[in-house]
Amino acid sequence: MSRRSRKGSEEDPLSDIEQLAADLPPVNGEVYAKIAMTGGSSFRGDLVLKRLADLPHIKEIHVFDIKAPMVHAPKVIFHRVDLTRDGADDLVASLLIKNEIKCLVHGGLFSGPGRNSSLRREVETIGTFHILNALAEAKVERCVVLGDTFVYGAHSQNPNFISENHSLRALGPDFVRARVDVEKQLIEFAKDYTNCEVCVLRFAPILGPNSTNVRARYFLVGIIPKVLGYDPLLQFIHEDDAAVAAQLAIFSKARGAFNIVGKGVLPLSTGIHLSGRFPVPVATPICKTVFSLGFMLRVWDLPSAMVPFFQYLCVGDGSRAEKVLGFRPHYSSRQALKALIEAARLRSVGFSIPSSALGEEKPLKPNEGFVRVN
What we know:
It contains ten helices and 15 strands. The protein is α/β, with parallel strands linked by helices. The protein has a domain at 17-208 and 235-263 and 314-325: Rossmann fold (3-Layer(aba) Sandwich). The chain has a seven-stranded parallel sheet with strand order 3-2-1-4-5-6-11, sandwiched between helices. Strands 7-10 form a two-stranded parallel sheet. α2 (88-98) crosses α3 and α3 (117-138) runs parallel beside α4. It is globular, with a radius of gyration of 20 Å. Mean pLDDT is 86; it is low at 7-27 and 359-374.
């Protein structure tokens, strides 16, 4: 029976989503021949969709989105669905039942703040509500959610490495509060529908040769703002590692939340130095004003809500993902950032590049050479 009501939001920090599941050993789950996906047109959705489309045992991938995915393959079937509209849950449920789909990847979530916060909140909270209704109606067996570590918020009291049982901050910036609401819905759903395995992947900012998110654009603008007197540690994950982690989660039986992070961390100052850009330190009393002004004038894509992330730690502990999913990142946070920066430099002089680490610690394979764009 479909879920047709929703409990009101609470302002208290959430309890641990990990309480919903015991630590399972790495284990293979179902080998699904058909998979559904939301957010297939996004950068993160595109990464996962490409990887799934290359797997021979997957026969059909049904994408629910308002925009067609960039992946063109016979097995990718696009359904134009606006998840914020009334009746979206009935439409998705009917498609899931008709096509006998038992696994859904929910990638219809934003990877950072945007310029339309009201639309963002609507897409994430209402969209997730409709998807969970559809999962209940169609009796889907597994749901993998593509989330983010920013759901922990950046705070002066954060530990050096945040584990999955750390409370989520329901009183953070708008884009964090929206994601906290999503995870609360997931907790309630997982408690009510135990036959559906809910797995949440909390990705560190995904960087690589093709990344387009807010953190990627930060290191590529001409002038980089930073908060004077602060140099927080940063953590990234390479786009190839992110796709591998999603595949492991889809075909496992693991439940609960997992931090998906790259090896190691690096200071913000080091990241700026690697980018070769010009840093502009901003005094704390006026930093939110400066960030807001630059955002309004489109100098950068960083609203004032991002200021705490340039002051305090928000670094995830990836040990549970290694223990339960068997996920071990191939690239470091530094390599992920270097891949982004080097790819941007190559493109600026007319080269296209593959999706791989560039120029640091690991040589390119013979079939990963550069191609000149004429």
